[in-house]
Design brief:
This protein is mainly α. It has helices at 3-15, 21-32, 37-56, 70-74, 78-90, 113-133, 160-168, 175-185, 195-216, 222-226, 256-266, 297-311, 318-332, 336-343, 348-352, 359-369, and strands at 233-234, 239-240, 242-244, 248-250, 283-284, 293-294. One of its GO terms (biological process) is cell division.
Length: 370
């Protein structure tokens, strides 16, 4: 089991007692269907937001989530759920006050249609289970009516071409890939306006550069990179041993270009002073944990965002680095099946979205046709 899955499994066990018994039954059902701990934790986050809204609106007499009875869900009206959907659309105006235990800066940002769609879909899954799949000792469904069945989602799934158009302005193309990595290695120093920032940058730039270059040289997911141990790196073959989505073992490749940055980081990894038993490839330190320990996904997301904003592409995220690799791969190697294998995609349709990113290629193809 990967480090992230272990962490989410522990978090799942910690969260479950906060929820009603029927949510625990739902989680057990999903576990039997091989849902990952990360997916289940996501369900609980969505349920928590909804349950806290019910309590804040006085739609249940329960003072804690775990005490919300089935009757509350059974008696919900369609207009009540529609009011919740409206709240999701406008909650950023109130910084989601009262529903979040630890509001962050993101609480001020508007939920996207995709996020709202996911939150309602999570509830649909719960209500479907309670009304159609689960049964009590008498063989009766837990809910006699499913109000969520009356809720229509107007979310429009974008075509591959539309998704590609949205991706284009948020990725690195051609020389930008090398320019960005060089900026992380050398250029960001000019943006360090305090001694503390400069010290932190110099301490971590070889790690940060290697991490970003590795993603860009192989199209890896951030979770895959964070989970890597030293023993997972096969330098002589430019390969990484990893467990991908769906618990699939894989050994994708990375380029010689990325390898050079990785070797540079490995030469200074010891400066993080990890314990002898620490096998994580990429390390981090903090005042609370001064010895090198496995870097977290959130830390990687933040550092990529920091460099991207200074570089001048603020929408560039760690996942867009994966998109950047995939787009560049197809630009230079027009073999989608090879890219599918490298990225670990189950379906070729997922891979083909990158074939549409470069509109100039598509435009030329259209012109050649007539």
């Amino acid at each position: 089991m990967s480090v992230i899955k272990k962490r989410d499994s522990i978090q799942l066990l910690q969260l479950i007692p906060e929820f009603p018994w029927y949510v625990e039954k739902f989680v057990e059902h999903k576990k039997s269907k091989k849902s990952s701990p990360s997916t289940l934790v996501g369900y609980l986050r969505d349920f928590s937001f909804f349950f806290r809204w019910l309590m804040a609106e006085g739609l249940t007499t329960a003072k804690e989530m775990k005490d919300i009875p089935l009757e509350t869900l059974n008696d919900l009206k369609k207009e009540t759920v529609e009011s919740y959907m409206l709240y999701l659309q406008e909650s950023h105006l109130f910084e989601r006050a009262g529903l979040l235990q630890k509001p962050t800066r993101s609480a001020k940002r508007e939920y996207s249609d995709r996020t709202i769609h996911r939150k309602i879909s999570s509830l649909k899954s719960l209500f479907t289970y309670l009304s159609a799949l689960a049964e009590d000792e008498n063989g009766e469904s837990y809910l006699s009516r499913n109000v969520m069945a009356k809720i229509e989602l107007d979310f429009v799934e974008a075509t591959p071409l539309a998704r590609a158009h949205a991706i284009r302005a948020k990725i690195l193309i051609d020389d930008e890939i090398h320019q960005f990595v060089d900026f992380v290695q050398n250029g960001y120093q000019a943006h360090c306006d305090t001694t503390k920032k400069l010290q932190y940058y110099r301490q971590n730039r070889d790690r940060d550069t290697a991490l970003i270059a590795l993603i860009l040289s192989g199209g890896f997911r951030v979770s895959e990179i964070v989970n890597l141990d030293l023993s997972d790196v096969v330098l002589e073959k430019n390969q990484l041993k990893m467990v991908r989505k769906g618990k699939k073992e894989d050994a994708p490749f990375f380029s010689d270009w990325g390898k050079a940055y990785l070797q540079r980081y490995l030469a200074v990894r010891h400066t993080y002073k990890p314990d002898e038993k620490e096998q994580a490839l990429f390390l981090a330190v903090s005042p609370a944990k001064p010895h090198g320990h496995r870097i977290e996904v959130r830390t990687v997301q933040k550092l990529v965002k920091k460099y991207a904003q200074a570089f001048g592409i603020p929408d560039l995220s760690v996942h867009k680095l994966r998109h950047s690799f995939a787009t560049q791969f197809l630009r230079l190697n027009p073999d989608a099946h090879q890219l599918q294998a490298q990225l670990g995609h189950s379906k070729i349709e997922t891979t083909m979205q990158y074939a549409h990113v470069l509109e100039d290629a598509l435009s030329k193809a259209v012109n050649r046709t007539t």
